[in-house]
């Protein structure tokens, strides 16, 4: 069409007009402002209100933080320094409390010459968990992951190296029982893998550990649970509970999906009872009641009781996350496993769980974030976590009356931990979505 | 494989679990340290310093008991307890003794089944108000908002006092002393009520202590002292007589400065000799070394020295001896004889 | 494998219990049952032995004895001579109050923040992101403590309202006082109370008022009847619209049904607004919203609101744009599109996680301990246990209460899920 028209048109422009600069409202900062901040009256009001809010917060908190005093021995000294340098009415934070109590907030009452141990334990944890989190790493590293809890226990509590070693031997014994019995009958294999280690721990662990300790006393100085405090305490409770609750959570999730009514309903009752009651009530139970339920004379230390309770608590939540993972698997996977003639345990081991666990990881990480935040509740049963330490620190005559600095610091620390874990779980979710497309 | 991890954890826990038997002293000796329940923090009475070393008036009692048993005042593990968890911690054997400004009451002694081994501080519940409130007596507090610490006898005393005097009040229950102090200073309550000693200790750390007054009314008797479980009289004796030894030492003029000299050879005061183990067998009767009392006194000094160095007038807390002076000086601190 | 052989006809052999899949499930279940019963028997036996050795018994009689302590916020009459059971009930009501208020506010905050997070406005978007991430990643306990402290420190004391040189003044025509002990707002009283309580004047010159639960019941009953009547009017309008295609104008009928009966009842009851005023140390009269309640409420709703914001955002993003376009193509107006097409679908995605957030909020209300709000954990699970030494009984009751509450909310959620579930093939 345009071909024919070209001949009939009298005038055709043969030079292009110079490109005009776009109107000033359509470029650069102004365009961005117009489109993003002031696109409608409502938006403009929202923008101005938000900016005012930000200004208000900065105006009130900014000077206080910038004037912060970082070196002093007591609150009184802080006030003197402030009066001398800034004047009496100028707001000034006294961050000196954080510099002075830094080791205590981090490690609690852990002996100062052993501060390296929790740090190394945390590093070991990250190295150990790396093969689980990043599937580009070789699978053979997973064996290292299985060793991590023992190494961490040894680093944190210390004592003879042979204690964890003998306990670990129980797992090895269980593993070989399983390898030996599983080809014969997988139910027998599973039962054997549970019973043999228990027998091993009951009858052999003690003698083995004490003999080895007597012959080759290698180990680290023992550190009591009472010396744990500050962020070390929060992290240890959080990590211990999540590691221990994972296997229990898997069992509960499988139990809840089971066709056997008694198994199913016990799992349901356990999960619902645990989830229906607030953690703080469970912690009080750990502190006030657990001793009633154990044989007379048994006496755990409080931290261990808390770890047990928090483990049970998070197991119920993890079970729900994994149940979600199990439910999200296409039904075809279950049917295909059945069609191959795999029995229940084999199909779970080889087909279902590996897939279900993989899609559950973001949920598990989110559960961990929640759990880690909830460790602050141990303050109410007298454990000195960071929040508990604020009370203890404020009870010393040096720092009596200090307030915001400590809570601000603790809040920021928690934010850094949780935010980075949250980002990681988001990254995993996105990755899983891409893979499933 | 994984499903066995949990049982492993239980076994590890089982290894760490100890058995508490009837004889607390044997347990303590076997463990090599004393487990002593303290507060999570009350200025002057118990608080950890920057190195994590606990110090304070209540802490000194724990240290003296540890020194009496082991000859080492550091052989003690401090277990912070809250008002809620303290009694269970003691009843369950988690701690061997509580030294946690706990009031000796009938129901705690009889119904909750504890054994109070003496009184290390005679206290009473008082009120602190800002000076510019213009209040000079507790009877003028009708309608006031009162900050109280929960989990103590304080809230019961307060309810009784206001009911008897037929005046109304608004209670603001607070979990810890530090929080209550913050609420009071911000004016969220008109009155802060707790043991008079804690009031004085708290006021001493204010920016302007002179702006606050402690009202003359003391509305309750609060004899504070260490306590142990019912049923182990030998252990109760050790705690009781360690405290008595500190008190007796002050009465007899034994201080941490002169104790070495007094203990090296028998003096002409037989009670001093019996106390310090140069005469008689008091230590053996308790199941301890002969120099148990000497060790206890060396840990932090006699009762008066402990008082002076933790909460006395030379410290920021600045408490006067008052009722807690020796009976010879008109106070209530009195020990049965060492005989 | 050897499927073609005859099924074993021989008599039952013991080994079949393990190897025969027909019987194996029974074996496993019976073993499990025995283990569970044994574990419970063990725990109960331990408990009995321990109670014996401590010389304690298991007895709920303490609930009947006098509590001896005071509670500042009570929704039902209580004084320190009443029983521990009554104190527990006061606490339960306080828990429910903060939970209900919290759920309402959290929903409001969450929906607003969720929608604003999708806003194209850069500043608003980022501010909401800071809010959501900040609250989600810092422990709730810290937020409760911080908000409580901010309120205590930044608001004026009641005495600053006093005298001629007062530095603070009450708001809204002397009816609202914001102090660091809480907020006093006017309350509603009835000068012709049906309860028979004598009307009392709060101060000289004020209208004498009395309060009674009956008056409130009558008032709300009237309101409920009005709402039922309004729904009838609307249904009738719907029928006419279906039949004739023209919707009759009914808004004035609806308004009249709402306002007139309520107004008449209020008039006959002598409904009076009672303003708070300063007397002695504090304000009196009016309703006192205590700082502990406000701080807990605010912290719970801001914290849960951050989670709800994410749920709402996900819910809105989950509805494909095609749904809106299809609705427009059918000629539906924007608000009808929202009501009839988008919301019902988004709700199906939003409601289940929303209710589990309500569940979390209710359980988190037990953190009231941090601000001294007298909820059921503070009364029954706190002071009562501490004064009576009945930790076993007290904790059982406390756990039972929270469990019952959670199950009730879960049951509601399941009911809703079932009624809105897509009917899948």
3D structure, described in words:
The complex is a heterotrimer of chains A (437), B (339) and C (425). Chain A has 437 residues and is an all-alpha fold. Chain A is 73% helix and 1% strand. Chain A has 2 domains: 23-62, no CATH class; 102-436, MetI-like fold (Orthogonal Bundle), CATH 1.10.3720. In chain A, strands 1-2 form a two-stranded antiparallel ribbon. Chain B has 339 residues and is of the alpha/beta class. In chain B, the strands form 5 sheets. In chain B, strands 11-10-12-9-13 form a 5-stranded mixed sheet. A 3-stranded parallel sheet of chain B has the order 5-2-6. A two-stranded antiparallel sheet of chain B has the order 3-4. In chain B, helix 3 crosses helix 9 (233-251) and helix 3 runs antiparallel to helix 13. Residues 1-21 of chain B have low confidence and may be disordered. Helix content of chain C is 62%, strand content 6%. In chain C, helix 8 (291-318) packs across helix 10 and helix 10 (334-364) packs antiparallel against helix 12 (391-420). At the A-C interface, helix 3, helix 11, helix 12, helix 15 and helix 17 of A face helix 2, helix 4, helix 5, helix 11 and helix 12 of C.
Topology, element by element:
The complex is a heterotrimer of chains A (437), B (339) and C (425).
Chain A: H1 2-8, H2 28-36, H3 41-66, H4 75-85, H5 96-107, H6 116-133, H7 142-157, E1 159-160, H8 162-181, H9 186-215, E2 219-220, H10 230-257, H11 261-276, H12 279-293, E3 298-299, H13 302-328, H14 331-339, H15 344-374, H16 386-395, H17 404-436
Antiparallel strand pairs in A: 1-2
Helix pairs in contact in A: 5-10, 6-7, 8-9, 10-11, 10-13, 10-16, 11-13, 12-13, 13-15, 14-15, 15-17
Chain B: H1 5-16, E1 18-19, H2 24-31, E2 34-38, E3 47-48, E4 54-55, H3 57-70, E5 76-80, H4 86-91, E6 97-98, H5 106-110, E7 114-116, E8 121-123, E9 125-130, E10 144-149, H6 154-164, E11 169-174, H7 177-185, E12 191-195, H8 196-204, E13 212-214, E14 222-224, E15 227-229, H9 233-251, H10 259-264, H11 270-276, H12 282-286, H13 292-300, H14 303-310
Parallel strand pairs in B: 2-5, 2-6, 10-11, 10-12
Antiparallel strand pairs in B: 3-4, 7-15, 8-14, 9-12, 9-13
Chain C: H1 16-19, H2 21-54, H3 84-117, H4 122-136, H5 140-154, E1 177-179, E2 182-185, E3 187-190, H6 213-244, H7 251-269, E4 271-274, E5 277-279, E6 282-284, E7 287-290, H8 291-318, H9 321-329, H10 334-364, H11 376-388, H12 391-420
Antiparallel strand pairs in C: 1-2, 2-7, 3-4, 5-6
């Amino acid at each position: 069409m345009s071909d024919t028209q070209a001949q009939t048109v009298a005038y055709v422009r043969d030079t292009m007009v110079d490109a005009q600069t776009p109107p000033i409202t359509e470029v650069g900062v102004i365009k961005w402002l117009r489109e993003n901040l002031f696109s409608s009256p409502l938006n403009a009001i929202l923008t101005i209100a938000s900016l005012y809010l930000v200004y208000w917060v900065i105006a009130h908190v900014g000077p206080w933080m910038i004037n912060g005093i970082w070196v002093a021995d007591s609150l009184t000294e802080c006030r003197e320094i402030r009066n001398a340098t800034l004047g009496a009415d100028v707001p000034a934070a006294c961050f000196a409390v954080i510099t002075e109590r830094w080791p205590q907030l981090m490690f609690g009452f852990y002996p100062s010459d052993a501060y390296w141990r929790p740090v190394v334990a945390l590093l070991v944890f990250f190295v150990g968990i790396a093969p689980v989190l990043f599937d580009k790493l070789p699978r053979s590293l997973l064996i290292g992951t299985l060793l991590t809890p023992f190494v961490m226990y040894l680093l944190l509590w210390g004592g003879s190296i042979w204690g964890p070693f003998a306990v670990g031997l129980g797992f090895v014994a269980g593993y070989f029982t399983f390898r030996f019995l599983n080809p014969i009958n997988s139910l027998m294999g599973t039962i054997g893998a549970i019973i043999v280690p228990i027998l091993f721990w009951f009858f052999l662990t003690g003698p083995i550990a004490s003999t080895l300790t007597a012959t080759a006393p290698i180990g680290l100085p023992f550190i009591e649970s009472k010396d744990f405090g500050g962020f070390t305490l929060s992290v240890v409770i959080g990590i211990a509970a999540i590691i221990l609750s994972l296997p229990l959570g898997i069992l509960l999730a499988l139990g809840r999906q089971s066709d056997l009514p008694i198994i199913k309903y016990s799992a349901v009752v356990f999960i619902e009872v645990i989830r229906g009651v607030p953690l703080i009530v469970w912690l009080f139970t750990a502190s006030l009641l657990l001793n009633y339920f154990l044989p007379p004379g048994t006496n755990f230390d409080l931290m261990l009781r808390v770890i047990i309770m928090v483990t049970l608590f998070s197991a119920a939540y993890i079970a729900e996350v994994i149940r979600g993972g199990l439910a999200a698997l296409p039904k075809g996977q279950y049917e295909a496993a059945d069609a191959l003639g795999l029995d229940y345990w084999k199909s779970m081991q080889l087909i279902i769980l590996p897939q279900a666990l993989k899609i559950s990881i973001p949920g598990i990480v989110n559960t961990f974030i929640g759990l880690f935040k909830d460790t602050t509740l141990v303050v109410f049963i007298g454990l000195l976590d960071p929040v508990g330490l604020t009370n203890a620190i404020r009870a010393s005559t040096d720092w009596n009356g200090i307030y915001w600095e400590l809570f601000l610091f603790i809040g920021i620390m928690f934010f850094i931990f949780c935010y980075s874990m949250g980002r990681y779980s988001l990254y995993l979710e996105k990755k899983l979505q891409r893979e499933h497309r | 494989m994984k499903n066995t991890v949990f049982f492993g954890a239980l076994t590890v826990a089982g290894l760490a679990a100890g058995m508490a038997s009837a004889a607390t002293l044997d347990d303590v000796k076997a463990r090599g340290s004393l487990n002593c329940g303290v507060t999570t923090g009350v200025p002057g009475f118990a608080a950890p310093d920057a190195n994590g070393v606990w110090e304070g008036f209540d802490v000194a009692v724990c240290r003296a008991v540890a020194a009496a048993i082991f000859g080492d005042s550091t052989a003690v593990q401090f277990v912070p307890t809250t008002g809620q968890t303290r009694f269970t911690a003691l009843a369950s054997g988690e701690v061997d003794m509580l030294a946690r400004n706990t009031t000796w009451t009938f129901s705690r002694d009889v119904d909750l089944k504890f054994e109070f081994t003496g009184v290390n501080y005679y206290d009473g519940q008082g009120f602190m108000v800002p000076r510019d409130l213009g209040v000079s007596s507790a009877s003028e507090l009708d309608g006031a908002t009162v900050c109280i610490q929960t989990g103590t006898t304080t809230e019961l005393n307060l309810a009784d006092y206001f009911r008897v005097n037929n005046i109304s009040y608004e209670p603001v229950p607070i979990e810890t002393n530090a929080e209550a102090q913050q609420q009071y200073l911000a004016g969220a309550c008109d009155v802060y009520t707790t043991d008079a000693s804690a009031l004085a200790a708290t006021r001493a750390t204010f920016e302007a202590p002179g702006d606050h007054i402690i009202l003359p009314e003391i509305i309750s008797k609060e004899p504070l002292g260490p306590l142990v479980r019912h049923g182990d009289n030998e252990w109760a004796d050790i705690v009781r007589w360690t405290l008595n030894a500190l008190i007796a030492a002050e009465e007899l003029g034994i201080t941490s400065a002169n104790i070495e000299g007094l203990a090296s050879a028998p003096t002409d005061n037989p009670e001093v000799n019996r106390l310090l183990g140069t005469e008689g067998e008091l230590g053996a009767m308790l199941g301890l070394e002969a120099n148990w009392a000497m060790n206890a006194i060396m840990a932090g000094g006699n009762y008066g020295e402990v008082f002076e160095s933790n909460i006395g007038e030379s410290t920021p807390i600045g408490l006067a001896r008052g009722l807690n002076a020796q009976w010879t000086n008109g106070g209530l601190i009195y020990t049965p004889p060492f005989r | 494998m050897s499927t073609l052989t005859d099924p074993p006809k021989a008599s039952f052999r013991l080994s079949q219990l393990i190897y025969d899949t027909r019987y194996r499930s029974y074996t496993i279940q019976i073993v499990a049952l025995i283990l569970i019963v044994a574990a419970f028997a063990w725990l109960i036996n331990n408990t009995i032995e321990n109670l014996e050795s401590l010389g304690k018994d298991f007895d709920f009689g303490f609930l009947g004895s006098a509590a001896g302590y005071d509670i500042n916020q009570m929704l039902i009459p209580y004084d320190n001579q009443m029983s521990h059971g009554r104190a527990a009930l006061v606490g339960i009501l306080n828990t429910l109050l903060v939970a209900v208020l919290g759920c309402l506010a959290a929903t409001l905050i969450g929906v607003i923040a969720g929608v604003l997070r999708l806003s194209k406005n850069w500043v608003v978007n980022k501010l909401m992101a800071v809010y959501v991430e900040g609250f989600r990643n810092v422990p709730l306990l810290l937020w409760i403590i911080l908000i409580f402290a901010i309120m205590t420190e930044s608001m004026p004391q009641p005495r600053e309202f006093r005298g001629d040189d007062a530095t603070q003044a009450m708001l809204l025509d002397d009816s609202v006082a914001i102090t660091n002990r809480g907020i006093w707002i006017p309350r509603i009283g009835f000068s012709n109370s049906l309860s028979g309580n004598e009307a009392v004047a709060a101060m000289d010159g004020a209208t004498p008022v009395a309060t009674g639960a009956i008056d409130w019941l009558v008032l709300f009953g009237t309101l409920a009847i009005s709402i039922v009547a309004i729904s009838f009017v609307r249904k009738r309008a719907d029928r006419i619209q279906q039949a004739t295609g023209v919707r009759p104008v009914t808004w004035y009928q609806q308004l009249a049904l709402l306002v007139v009966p309520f107004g008449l009842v209020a008039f006959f009851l002598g409904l009076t607004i009672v303003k708070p005023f300063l007397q002695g140390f504090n304000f009196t009269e009016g309703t006192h919203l205590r700082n502990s309640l406000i701080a807990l409420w605010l912290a719970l709703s801001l914290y849960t609101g951050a989670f709800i914001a994410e749920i709402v955002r996900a819910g809105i993003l989950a509805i494909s744009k095609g749904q809106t376009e299809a609705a427009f193509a059918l000629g539906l107006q924007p608000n009808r599109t929202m009501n009839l097409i988008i919301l019902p679908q988004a709700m199906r995605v939003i409601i289940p996680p929303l209710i589990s957030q309500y569940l979390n909020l209710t359980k988190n209300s037990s953190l009231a301990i941090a601000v001294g709000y007298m909820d059921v954990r503070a009364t029954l699970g706190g002071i009562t246990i501490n004064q009576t030494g009945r930790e076993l009984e007290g904790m059982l009751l406390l756990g039972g209460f929270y469990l019952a509450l959670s199950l009730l909310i879960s049951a509601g959620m399941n009911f809703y899920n079932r009624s809105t579930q897509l009917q899948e093939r």
